[in-house]
Amino acid sequence: MSFLRTSAIALAGLAFLAATGCSAVQQAAEDVTSEAAARAIAESIGPVLEQVGHTLDGTPKCETDLSAVDGNDVLAGTVSCTGKTTKSEAVQATFDGRLSVNDCTGSLSIKVGSKEVVNTPDLPACSIGG
Question: Where on the tree of life does the source sit, at the highest rank (predicted)?
Answer without folding.
Answer: Bacteria
